[in-house]
Structures are given as structure tokens and as C-alpha cells.
Amino acid sequence: MSSAERMMATLIARRGERILAGLALASLTASAILSLVVSPPDAEQGNLIRLMYVHVPAAWVAYLAFAVVFVSSIAYLVTRKTRWDRLAAASAEIGVLFTALTIVLGSIWAKPVWGTWWTWDPRLTTTAILLMIYVGYLAVRRLPDSPARRARWAAVVGIVGFVDVPIVHLSVRWWRSLHQAPARLIGVPDVSPMMGAALGIGFLSFTIAYVYLMAVRLRVGRLEERAVAEALSPRVGQPVEVLMEEPARG
Amino acid sequence: MISVADVVIGAARYGGYVIAGYVIAAVGLGGYFGSLLYRARQARSKARAIATHRTG
User: Across the interface, which of A54, A220, A231 has its CB nearest the CB of B39?
Assistant: First the structure.
């Protein structure tokens, strides 16, 4: 890629990032208004149901982020292209953030409804394990090893760790759980149309926020790699651009 | 039927949990976004400093 093409690609990427930022901000604002003002209180839980509009979308994004880690990790092991490793690393970091948010928001919701901040319920326990697996994944990525070997190990953890995602999701069906089963939104919905709309906008806005954070995180990853390449360049006697290229398979 | 008084009392009773949840979500997302901007600035200035040092 020539420097002019690279500059053009950067400009398009930055423009896309800005559009995504606007979309994320607008949809999150719409979601907050719909969830906090427009949607009605629940017949049993009252206003506490409003926590559902952030808790459930946060859990969805965590699943999505770890699915991206899973697919990218497989793609990395097959192709050995660093772009897949970068994608997995970025998604895992954001997945950990959303899993932590899911747990904290769930805990805040549990206190007034269940009477406790935390209980060793199957859904809660498997979610805590999920968080630990991906914190472990991020720890593996910081091991002092060759980048290729580190990426390989991280990919293995990213693939094996994903096994916990369906376990988390199905835990409420497999075991006796205090946690409620997922609400049905398609077909004959379990919730009122306005609640369904608020939840749908919540899903959409959190998904856009995830895509935007991914775009920013990937750019940060490139900048950090550039800083390392700048430092390495005189030592290994190779230009920065060469060090930033995809390494050969081996 | 839910009266206005019920809504006000309910909001006052559990409003703190709801507000805390939304504030934590906003702080979590905003904090992470802020940390990304900080990392980007750090990496850019580090790369620039090394490049300047190298080229003299």
C-alpha cells in the first residue's frame, strides 16, 4: 500500500469513527430517555425494571465480544495474520468491561429484589467464571514471551474460554436458578410493547457503542504497536513500516 | 391502577438503585473510553519522541 493510499484509508477510517461516535451517543441518549422516562414501571418490580434496559444489553454485548474473540482466535490460528490477534485482543478487553458491568448492574438490581447483593446462583457463578477466564486471557497477553507465541496461547484461551458463554446463557434452564429466564421478545412477547421497544433500543445502542469502542481500541492498538516498532527499528536495523507489516507464517 | 402517589413513592424508594445503575454504566463506558484516549495520546507521543531521538 502506498503512503497516499494509507493516508486515504486513515482519513476514511477516522471519518467512519466519527460517524460511529455520533451514532453511539445519539442511540445511547435515546435509550436512556426511553428506559428512564417513556417506558412504564413494572407491575411487580416498579421502577427497578429500568435496570433491565442496561443490564441485559450489557450481557448481550459481553456475549458478542467473546464470540468475536472466539472467531478471531480461530482465524488467527488458521492464517497467523496479526490482524486477527489484534481484533481478538480488542474484543476481549471490551468484553471484560461489559461482563464486569453486567455483574455490577445485576448486583444493584438483586439487592432490592432478592434481598442480597450476591448469591452463588448458577447464572451469577458462571458469569463470574466468564469474567475470570477473560481476565486470564488478558493476563496471558501480557506474558513476557515472543509476540507470535503469546498470540498463539491467547488464541487457545480465547477458543476454550468461549465454552462458558453458552453455559452462562443456558444455566437458568439447566439448573434451578434464582435468576429469571430470558424474556421472550419475538412471537408472543413476555413484556409490554413499550418495554420491548426500550429493550430493543438498549440492545442496538450498546451494540453500536461496542462497534465504536472496537474501532477506537483497534486504532490505539496500532499506535502502541507503532511506538514499539519505533523503539525496535534501530536495534534490528529495519524500517518501522516493515516491522508493522504482517509477520510471515512460521 | 397505579396512582401518581404510588409512582412518586416507588421512585423515591428504589430510585437510588436505578440512578446508581445508570451512573455506573455511564462511568464504566466513559471511563474506558477516556482510558483509550489517554493510551492513544501516550503511544503517539512515545512514538514521536523515539522517532525524534533517532533522527536527531
Answer: A220
Is B2 an 8 Å CB contact of chain A? Answer: yes
Architecture label for domain A16-176+192-224: Up-down Bundle (1.20)
Which tens digit of pLDDT belongs to each residue from A175-223?
Answer: 888 888 776 666 666 778 889 999 999 999 999 999 999 999 999 998 8
Chain A residue with Cα closest to B31:
A97
Domain boundaries, chain A: 16-176+192-224
Query: Is the model's pLDDT at B7 over the cut of 70?
Result: no
Q: Is B14 in contact with A94 (Cβ distance < 8 A)?
A: no
The ipTM estimated for the assembled molecules is 0.86
Whole-number mean pLDDT of chain A? 89
CB contact under 8 A, B36 and A112: no
Q: For residue B20, what are the CA distances in angstroms to A27, A84, A105, A216, B25?
A: 21, 37, 9, 27, 9
pLDDT greater than 90 at residue A116: yes
CB A59 within 8 A of CB A102: yes
Nearest CA in chain B to A206: B29
In which residue are the cell numbers 456475549 written? Answer: A63
Q: Per the CB < 8 Å rule, is B47 touching A227?
A: yes
Q: Is B8 on the interface with A (CB under 8 A)?
A: no
A94: contact with B, CB 8 A cutoff:
yes
Q: Give the bridge partners for A46, in sequence order.
A: A42
Alpha-carbon distance values, A162 to A52, A93, A152, A178 (Å): 24, 14, 16, 24
Nearest to A91, CA basis, from A215, A233, A201: A215
Contacts of A209 in chain B (CB under 8 A): 29
Who contacts A207 (Cβ-Cβ below 8 Å, separation ≥6)?
Answer: A57, A60, A61, A64
A101/B54 touch (CB, cutoff 8 Å), yes or no? no
Distance between terminal CA atoms of chain A?
A: 23
